[in-house]
Amino acid sequence: MITKTKTKTKTKITIVGSGFVGMSLSVLLAQHNEVTVLDIDPIRVEKINNKQSTIADPEIELFLTEKSLSLTATLDSRLAFEGAQFIIVATPTNYDTETSRFDTSSVDNVVDEALKFNSDALIIIKSTIPVGHTKSLQEKFDTKRVIFSPEFLREGKALKDNLNPSRIIIGSHSEASKEFAELLKQAAEKVSVEMLFIRSAEAEAIKLFANTYLAMRVSFFNELDSYALAHELDTKNIISGVCLDERIGNGYNNPSFGYGGYCLPKDTKQLLTNYERVPQTLIQAIVSSNSTRKAFLADEILKQNPEIVGFYRLVMKEGSDNFRSSAIQGIIKRIKAKGILVIIYEPTFYGEDFFGSEVIQDIEEFKIKSDIIVSNRISEQLLDVQGKVFSRDIFKEN
Description:
alpha/beta
């Protein structure tokens, strides 16, 4: 265990990307350092320079308005990279279904450009990448200045998780990487932070295995719920009894429509791809389980013979504005495939339709029109129509 210490000198840090990883790290590190955010989106750059968050995160919004932060944003790569002591890469790496692996092109391009504009900085990849990718970049560019350090953040609570990290993992043993770890520790509110310095490939594996374990836990309790539904048993009673075992515990046990969000679906698939020449059955089962769950729930909804199915929110949970890969979309597709009319209530989506389904912004109109309302998590807005709400939110928790 390493106890948090304070340093007085400001370090120049550049963070590339202002999604929930980049934005939270920018605000975190700007407390004590000079932070520049580089992004390709002028709207995001303008927001940051006007002390506005690019993502929905109450803690970030609070820090931007109430804390004294040294934080600016720019579209200019040269301006951002030159003179920086640390460059953090937090660009998206979406899963490419054609190649069956992450599309790392954004990360690779940033690393290439950063090395050209800066001959000294340590480049820390925070984007999730395949195991072994950092080593391939080190070999390609003949440098040890590129390392990997995973993030373990929840959407909507990214800054809170950075202020209270479960651990800090650095894929390097270099002095520069230890200095970077100290900056993360300095910015945290947590007094003692567990730190681990290992090889980048091991750090990459930790990220994928940690997220796949969480997906496995979600899948386990979802399949438990499917069994209970099929046999008319009380899911809450079963889960409560199972989780009284201290080896299992109570966390992360609320059934849902499947694991979703930005990280778990793509990270589980990437880990499966990394098993290309290694025998396995469990990782494949975790990936397959998510589709099985959505198909089962879609059938349960269809058993009620609805004419119009309303889907309440596309986002995965309360406090999030992101519906990338949300599990509810898989159920929408299955319901529509049976010829059932689908309508959607999603206040953060401003289009008139979502993949051909009408988006209704008036919650009362939405509730009246829907024969069944499908909701991943129960909201107070639906309490007056509970009789037609289909949800597997047993414990009323995200």
